């Protein structure tokens, strides 16, 4: 029996070491839990919170970017509409200015035409007056020379021709 006990002890489980290891394991686990597990868990919680916040922030940024994109598209549509209105107004103003200029040009041309007609009529009247005066002077001169000289028919004709030539030369000079 003594030998069996020693053999049993040599071949059996040594309960004292096992309890020692179990107590040591429990103490080690308590130390790990106290010194390592808490900080590691806290670090992991902080990391998880940071990742969740980053995801929320990214989602919020995406929503803001979509809103900004919608606003930009709306502004772009508004600017296209406004540009179209500006172009249309410019076209209408151009048409109005063209019509005003054409109407003014027609009026001015008509006024110039009337002025030219009046000037031509005045010049014609002045020329007729000048011719009347010249013919009257010439007639008086011829008459005075005919009266002062008793000329023959050929001499009278030559005298009239010379005065008419002189009259033509006077009109060319004017």
Written description of the protein model:
This protein has one domain. 95% of the residues lie in helices and 0% in strands. It contains 3 helices and no strands. The protein has helices spanning 2-11, 15-148, 153-173. It is rod-shaped. The N and C termini lie far apart (175 Å).
Output the keywords.
proton-transporting ATP synthase activity, rotational mechanism; mainly alpha; rod-shaped
Distance between the termini: 175 Å
Number of domains: 1
- The tally of beta strands, per DSSP, is 0
How many helical elements?
3
Based on CA atoms alone, the radius of gyration comes out at 65 Å
How would you characterize the largest beta sheet? none
Overall 3D form: rod-shaped
- Mean pLDDT score, rounded? 82
Quaternary structure classification:
single chain
Catalogue the unreliable spans: 1-9
Q: What proportion of the residues form beta strands (DSSP E)? A: under 5%
Helix percentage: over 70%
Give the structural class. Answer: mainly alpha
Coiled coil: 48-126
Protein name: ATP synthase subunit b
Membrane topology: Single-pass membrane protein
Keywords: ATP synthesis, Cell membrane, CF(0), Coiled coil, Hydrogen ion transport, Ion transport, Membrane, Transmembrane, Transmembrane helix, Transport
């Amino acid at each position: 029996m003594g030998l069996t006990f020693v053999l049993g002890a040599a071949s059996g489980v040594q309960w004292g070491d096992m309890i020692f290891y179990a107590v040591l394991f429990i103490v080690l686990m308590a130390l790990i839990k106290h010194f390592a597990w808490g900080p590691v868990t806290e670090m992991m919680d902080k990391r998880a919170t940071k990742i969740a916040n980053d995801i929320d922030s990214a989602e919020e940024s995406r929503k803001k970017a979509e809103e900004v994109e919608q606003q930009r598209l709306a502004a772009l549509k508004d600017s296209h509409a406004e540009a179209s209105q500006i172009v249309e107004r410019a076209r209408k103003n151009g048409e109005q200015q063209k019509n005003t200029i054409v109407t003014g040009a027609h009026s001015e041309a008509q006024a110039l035409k009337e002025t030219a007609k009046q000037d031509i009529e005045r010049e014609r009247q002045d020329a007729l007056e000048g011719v009347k005066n010249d013919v009257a002077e010439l007639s008086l001169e011829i008459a005075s020379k005919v009266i002062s000289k008793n000329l023959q028919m050929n001499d009278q004709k030559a005298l009239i021709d010379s005065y008419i030539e002189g009259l033509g030369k006077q009109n060319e000079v004017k």
